[in-house]
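User: Hey, quick favor. My workstation is busy. Could you predict this chain's structure for me?
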Amino acid sequence: MVLCDIGNSTFSFLVDDNSFVVDIKNSSNLPKIDKKIYFISVNKKATKIFQKKYPKAIDLAPYIKLKTKYKGLGVDRALVCSHIKNGIIIDVGSAITIDIVDDNKHLGGFILSGFKAYKKSYKKISKKLKFDYKDFKSLNKLPKNTQEAINLAILNGIVLQINNLAKQYDKTIYLTGGDALMIKKYLNKDTIYRPNMIFKTMKKIIKKGL
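Assistant: No problem, here it is.
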């Protein structure tokens, strides 16, 4: 069985227990696959490329069941929220999505820029604001230079919002995504890190039967 999560910039594959990524710009590098393929996608253009390469691939979107009043919820967000009874789900990728689920109902959520997007945006303001991400023991620090000023502003803007939501809704935080470890140490102790959360949820849907 092969799983694929088609995002804004990459095809993320899981083949048995091995994961790999193909950049959408390099879609000619999509491998030949003879096994059954299941996928989800937030990218219509990439989906057409994918289905042309793998015409028998099965889209799991129609099998996702989630109670929500949120309009335009991405299939990746809906997928993971559909299998969390209570919690705050944080996916730290090209964008950072924050979703709140209460008693199997999706209450709503937020979308923040991802770390790479933040980095690009500062350079557009001024070349002097070029920076590299830095690890801090604590975020309770007054910046003493431009590098610290930008880093702490970004981290606090993300982390404080998440921790405040966790207190407000009294929920466990479920953390996933490629850049999740950049904020994990700063979140409340009641945080569960689940790498490959999307793939694990896809497997649950398939196991239930389509």
